[in-house]
Specification:
This protein is mostly beta strands and 565 residues long. The protein is 7% helix and 45% strand.
Length: 565
């Protein structure tokens, strides 16, 4: 008969039982699952058993690589990094390896560039939009064609990135390794089943996490502080599928979460981001089936959400929801069309031929439940000197939906979005009519002739349940819609000391409905129309503060507008 133990008896026997268990663990030889066990199952490969010193001075690259190789040969296990500072150069991660950094453990990237080597298996070269690495193929930690790789633990990976920064007047960096030869902190190429969790990455020489053509990757509870060198990205995905970011905090100097090439089936949630450049930056081939939700984007001076679609590319089925954008510039930019390369100090030139044979496709992009505070750019004290300067287009910025030539944006929707702007737009900005047909970086066009939304070449534009607020006077119209076909402005409120001639301006717009608008600041005209506008309806709302409801000019015909007060 099985014995029955009472709750009191069980609790009373715990000290004796625990003593027996700890004695048993202490007797397990190093190299097997024992006192250093992590949540991952398998053997333990303590890097001290392979000669690692952990004194921050002795190079421990060979010891760490030997532990990784042994774990890989065993086809399962944990490479254990105990408390201490382990100085390393390039280390190759391999399949079936879990790298566990204990609390107090630091992998410190060497400041000597000779301790790094390129991953020859990773191709260089290529053209914009393809999946090859054009920016280098050196990693502090890297893996190629590997599967089931995990990096975990409360430890730190420190790249000592300032040692790879060029000096004044182009002097070589202290490490002797600069430019595209700098190491990424984690570089993965064509890997599958990747997990990175509960770690601190800091002071990278280049991008922090760079993944190329990887599938099935999870990133959880990471803290990334990467602001000591140029191109200090946080996450940088190129042609990845089934990648998921959750619960991460990123403070970067460059793109916080770039998605280049062809990225599909990506989710990003419950995270915070801050950067001098962009947070979610799209560029290249096909980006589709992507959701970004429940995120905080703060102190972003360089366009938090930037989507640049070039000829032949496609962005489709992308959702942004439940976002808080606080103290940002150029909050949202979606562009479609040929893009010139921007060179600092030189005005960008429009492409010679705006019409392209295979224009890009941008459609089904949605923004919902967002609260946005736009500011004029500021200098973040922990960023580098070259991040101080700002271009004219970064000041007085707005939401920009900008397609050019024969390119269009299709089915772009905003719902339950509140945006507060700093104001300051001048009469000269409001008078701009020939905005350069440049679809590149959001600042290339200069200040746009709208303080809330500037849209050009959009089919199926929906602005619903939005509130636009101004904190200071602005002489530009709130919204300027040019070549918009099938547009809806529903239940939107324009608040603040606008002082512009018109609250809303449309040019060559067709089949648009403005319903239930609210104008809370006086304006001489509510709607100014220009060009060949057709099938336009203005329905209801509170426009009592407008001196004139409709003003048609430059070829616009009042007969094309149905006004129902």
């Amino acid at each position: 008969m099985a014995s029955i133990i009472s709750r009191r008896g069980l609790l009373g026997g715990l000290p004796v039982a625990w003593a027996g268990m700890t004695a048993g663990i202490a007797s397990i030889p190093r190299g097997t699952l024992g006192s250093h066990a992590s949540p991952s199952a398998g053997q333990i490969f303590d890097i001290r058993s392979y000669g690692a010193r952990g004194d921050g001075r002795t190079l421990d690259t060979k010891a760490l690589q030997s532990a990784v190789d042994a774990c890989h040969q065993a086809r399962a296990g944990v490479v254990y990094v105990p408390a201490g500072t382990f100085l390393i150069g390039t280390v190759q991660l391999k399949s079936w390896v879990t790298l566990h950094l204990a609390a107090g453990a630091t992998l410190l990237g060497s400041s000597d560039g000779r301790d790094y080597y390129p991953a020859r298996e990773i191709p260089l070269g290529g053209v914009p939009g393809d999946a090859t690495l054009r920016d280098g193929h050196v990693g502090l930690l890297y893996a190629v064609n590997a599967e089931n790789i995990t990096l975990e633990g409360p430890g730190t990976i420190d790249g000592q990135g300032a040692e790879f920064r060029r000096g004044l007047h182009g002097a070589p960096p202290p490490s002797g390794r600069g430019g595209g030869r700098r190491p990424f902190q984690l570089l993965l190429y064509r890997c599958r089943q990747v997990r990175v969790r509960d770690m601190f990455f800091t002071r990278g020489a280049y991008h922090c996490l760079r993944l190329v053509e990887c599938r099935f990757a999870w990133f959880d509870n990471l803290h990334i502080l990467n602001r000591v060198n140029g191109n200090n990205d946080g996450f940088h995905f190129i042609s990845c599928e089934y990648a998921h970011v959750n619960g991460c905090d990123v403070l970067s100097g460059d793109d916080a979460c770039a998605l280049f090439g062809s990225c599909r089936n990506i989710t990003i949630a419950n995270s915070s981001f801050s950067t001098r450049w962009s947070v979610f930056r799209f560029g290249g081939g096909t980006a589709e089936n992507i959701t970004i939700s429940n995120c905080i984007l703060h102190e972003v001076y360089g366009c938090p959400i930037k989507m640049q679609c070039n000829p032949g590319a496609r962005f489709e089925n992308i959702s942004f929801a439940n976002l808080l954008l606080q103290n940002v510039t150029g909050p949202i930019h979606i562009g479609n069309g040929p893009s010139p390369r921007y060179r600092r100090g030189r005005p960008p030139q429009a492409p010679a031929h705006a019409e392209v044979t295979h224009p890009g496709i941008v459609r089904n992009i949605s923004f919902s439940h967002c609260n946005i505070r736009v500011v004029n750019p500021r200098h973040q004290p922990d960023l580098l000197p070259w991040h101080i300067g700002y271009r004219s287009g970064e000041v007085h910025s707005c939401v920009a939906l900008n397609a050019m030539g024969n390119s269009w944006l299709e089915n772009i929707s905003f719902d339950d979005v509140r945006i507060s702007y700093p104001g300051g737009g001048t009469a000269a900005m409001a008078a701009i009519r020939n905005v350069p047909e440049i679809s590149g970086e959001y600042f290339m066009n200069g200040p746009l002739p709208a303080w809330a939304v500037y849209a050009r070449n959009v089919r199926g534009l929906e602005l619903a349940n939005m509130r636009f607020e101004l904190r200071a006077a602005d002489l530009r119209p709130a919204l300027n819609l040019i070549h918009v076909d099938d547009g809806v402005l529903a239940n939107c409120t324009l608040a603040g000391p606008a002082r512009s001639r018109a609250a809303l301006r449309v040019e060559a717009a067709r089949n648009c409905l403005v319903t239930a608008p609210r104008l809370l600041a006086p304006a001489p005209v509510f709607l100014e129309a220009a060009g060949d506008c057709r099938d336009m309806v203005v329905n209801g709302g509170d426009l009592s503060r407008a001196g004139q409801l409709l003003d048609c000019r430059d070829g616009a015909r009042q007969s094309e507008f149905k006004v129902r007060e």
